[in-house]
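Students often ask why we bother encoding 3D structure as a string. The short answer is that it lets us treat folding as translation between two languages. Here is a chain of 474 residues written in the first language.
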Amino acid sequence: MSRYISNNTDRNQVNLIPMSLDEMISEDNPVRILDAFVDSINLNELGFKYATPKMTGRKPYNPAAMLKLYLYGYFNGIRSSRKLETECNRNIELMWLIQGLRPDYRTIADFRKDNISLLKNIFKHFSLLCNDLGLLGKEIIAIDGSKFRANNARKKNLTKGKIEKMLVYFEQAAKCYLELLENTDDKDDKNSVTYRKEEVQQKLANATQRIHELTAIKQQVEENGEVSLTDKDARLMNANNMGFDVAYNVQTAVDAKNHIIIAVDVINNPADQGQLYPMAVQAKQLLNIEEITVLADKGYYTGQCLEKCEQENIVAIVSKQKSPSSTGNSDYIVEKFKYDADNDCYICPQGEILYNVSRNNKKGKIYRSKTCKTCLHKAECTNNQRGRQIIRGKFHEVMARTDERLANNMKLYKQRQMIVEHPFGTIKRALGYTHFLLRGIEKVKGEAVMHCLMYNLKRVINIMGAKQLIAAIK
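And here it is in the second language, the structure alphabet:
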């Protein structure tokens, strides 16, 4: 007798009381949430292809079923269309969800390709649902960016230096092949020839073609700084712990109450500068509120964005970048110079006055002192032969107000990290979405939206529970 656990089930035995698919799916199974959520959306209004089928021609797959399939795939970490095709033929949950449909991988891939730009509307629909359920605080949001690897190998990303090295290599190779052809023609004994003439000619042709290709790519690099051969929109970025890699910069705005993502965008610029205002406005419009407080790190600190935020009733609490010092002496950074608004001048740490010497300067007002040349501390203050210079830009006032606001709200600002970095950590570590499968920034935006939607969905399930969420959706 076997000592292993067994229920003695015969694979060939026919059950007299067969179970339905619905009986095999528990009441709190997340697949029921996906089903209820998609059924609550009017896909025709959102513009999904075949949402209203034509009366003639071949019948299409219902876009609702295809959307459920994709949501299920991303929810369970299955992004490949071929793997989804396999799951449709063996996965009981999917059989229940899309009612036994078995689309092939081409149909699955085409659905994503045709509707990729509309996925943001699905994300927005769920965010509004979270708002209706009272899960959003609608008072404080935090904004941050994180790098996600693109579908482009690093060796397929070319810079000017790389191309010049490759051109030198192929030009030398072409020169060697030409010399080899000449030597081959001069030799009478064919047995002493290492390569046949036809082989050398083919190698020469390949090298010449490669030179032409690299020369054309070099022109693109001179315009854009770099070229990615597989995904033309991807750029080389410093991805922190991963080092430099070809990636995209994913921007998110996260509501402080339950750490739910309410706005997402993708850029191919490694810097976050210029993203504070567009991300804050996107979140504010979704929440449909008059005023909102935004937390962001020093990478978002730009005068232009801060001014626009003030104009739109966005209270920005943003840390300031450290002021540079040409001499490395922190006693003489620009913050150590006091501004006298009544006399429109600056007073240096040594008590000397820097007067406004500018005349219609586009950068702003320029302040200098006549005593700099004879000052004993000049070497500690500046490397400029003309003496210390301070530029007061046109955004100085709004930046000063932002600095004061930060100083008065440091306790609130310290919450920024745990609010906005928590979702990125979950998406990358728990969900495993560290890279993109699609190519091109528009398609990547759709994929990033799916990552964030899956995070939000799992977050809400953890907060409310599956049964309660299903009831709320219905």
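Translate back mentally: The radius of gyration is 31 Å. Keep this in mind for the problem set.
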